[in-house]
Write a structure and sequence with these properties.
By secondary structure, the chain is α/β, with parallel strands linked by helices. It has helices at residues 9-14, 24-27, 30-35, 112-123, 153-168, 186-194, 221-233, 266-279, 283-298, 329-336, 338-362, 367-376, 392-400, 414-418, 428-441; strands spanning 2-3, 17-19, 42-44, 48-51, 54-57, 60-65, 71-77, 84-86, 94-97, 106-109, 134-138, 174-178, 197-201, 203-206, 209-212, 303-306, 309-314, 318-322, 386-387, 406-409, 444-446, 457-459, 463-471. The strands form seven sheets. It has a five-stranded antiparallel sheet with strand order 2-3-6-7-8.
Amino acid sequence: MNITTSIKPESILANCTVLNPLDDAYINHPIIQHFGSPSQPIYVDQCNVEINGLSYEQPLILPIVNGELKLIQCAVIQDRQLIQIMPDGLAKGFAYYGDLHQDKPVIVTHSLEAFFKIASSIAIGFEPPLQPFAVVLVILPHLEHTNRTTLKPCDFEQIQFVINQLSQASYTQIYMPTRAEHRKLKPYQNLEQNTAVCLLSQTMQYGDKAFHIDLNRDEDDAEVQAFIHEAISQLPKQGDHWGELLPLTQAESAINTPYPIHALPPLAREAVLAIAEYVQAPIAMAAQCVIGAMSHIAQAHVNAPHPFNAQGEPCSLYLLTEGQSGSRKSTSRNMADKAIIQYERKQYEQYRRDLEQWKSGQASLNKKDREAYCAENPSPHDPSTLYSDITLESIAGLYVDGILNNASIASDEAGQFFGGYTMKGDTRTQAIGGYAKLFDDGFVERTRSKSNLNGSGRAYDVRLVSGSVKMTP
């Protein structure tokens, strides 16, 4: 059976078989054999299905919920096979086992084996005074790989997205087990500093001895449960110490506000993820580049809706992206603009041939015949629409002269844009006004004296994307 990622999660679960831990089919399921048992019921699709050209044989199905515990998606998991999220392709929530209570501990993990092991420890019950907890799984694309420990920037953004979902739903005790060597890494420190999560060290000190727990399938359930309670109890209590003082005003950053990639259409979202994965760039960087490319393509054909104008308004965007040196600014933009660049290259090659033909057509003509030839055969125009270093005055001239009606200014270095002639002190204010007018209604005007070779004129309904300008702080 071939199914698409648009199928509703309720329909997926309705067609599944619920297997219990004592069932032979449960015990022998490849996922359980590989990752261990959660000692909890599981959903299994008993059919062989094909999704996006990949075959799945009796896959395990994990329900995905949002912060309000509403079913929104399903994860289709088969051992050593790419995980499929249905619908939409990108997880917008999390899977969980146990009873989620806003005033009880919630253990967050991104490992399927750890998720199942903690779930199994929940299944044995909690003896007083031990406090019940639940476990939440962040669905990452490489979830099926048991031994993967290196997380990418997009993985941390997905983990933060889930933590923020829980925090916004008023869960107050959010913890994530972390290996001791990982706690020293900046991404983990940022996660703990900028979200509601507390990291639980998987190595604890008792006297002069250190004890480590891997949260793998071979760990004893009771020991896992005891570890979690002990790790939580060893955390500093609120008010026990001041901690490092923070400035009253903190700069906004991508870790504080995750880029809303889930709001993009599926095709654009997949392009962002592919670029970020391929060039190892931050999700926000790749997304800005893709959105800039989309705006460039769309602005010549459609308008954005406007509540008070039936004809809409320009869908052009002005985008500014800050990135450290070496953050793959240029590579990300080149990949996002690849189709545009290839198209313009073909157009430019045709333009060069047409220009050579136009020049050769008048080469042997006298002045009078040349003037007649040029009047009947106007010079071909350069079809380029992507610019990295052009003044507002120059691009306005191209609009007014009818050579352009759709263009983009995109630079890999902000200094090239902000340090250019247009943005210098004596012309900056006028330039900003010109850019704002273009952005607002697609209007540009050029006023010149009669003696000026470049005459006065206006252009309406022209479009300009000023995008993917990258700053290196």
